[in-house]
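Can't paste images in this forum, so I'm doing it all in text. The chain is below; anyone willing to post the predicted structure tokens underneath?
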Amino acid sequence: MYRIINRVIINPINKINYIKDFGSMSSSKDKMNNKAQLKKDKSKKDNYTEALLKERFYSHKSRVIEDIEYMEKYKIKIRLPVFPEDISENIIKFIINNKLSGDSIWSCDTGDLYSTKEGIQECKCFTSSGPSSFSPTSNWDVIYFLDGRQVIPNNFILYRIPLKKDSEEWKKIKINKKETFEDQCKGKRRPRINWASLYPQISQYCEEVYNGSFEQIFLPSEEVLSNDVLLISQLE
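Text version of the structure:
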């Protein structure tokens, strides 16, 4: 059951699944290695702060809005700028840390994000119906998909899929009628698939962990709930 709080949808079992799923897919040795890796990575310091993410996000959004206004005003076509990876990956980082009590960092040697609780975290973001691209050699312990198609109305949806890249479920994903994800990786090609084709194949493992605005990602779930209770009491 989901709770809707100030435009944010929070699944109360997410924090439980976040820890439980990783416990089931990692050995004790893996966890020790993960902790050692995180300790090493943390020594570098994650300089991608909340302030920096806000600056980067609003700058990008302003550029997109400006281009849209030019197209409408002059009746021309302009290719909108691609959503930068550093922005999408850090949006995911703040959602994980604030909504799922995670400890993800961006300044890491392996993966897009790294966590002692989940290991290597792969991050993908889509802002259109176009395909996401995957490296044939990268690995991950869990993968997150950020739906940024409503970036201008200011709404993001984050999905968590606790499947490793080398899991049988992931390897058999159909990229086209003849080839699977594993087939293309073995051929040293980058698998490309859009969300509309991917989701039906992994929906049973896919969990929506966030649905809300950019500004809300910086608030811990408890703080969002507290603000909502305060608002209700004021209305009463």
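Helices lie at 14-25, 28-42, 50-74, 85-99, 168-171, 181-186, 195-202, 221-235. Residues 1-10, 22-28 have pLDDT under 50 and may be disordered.
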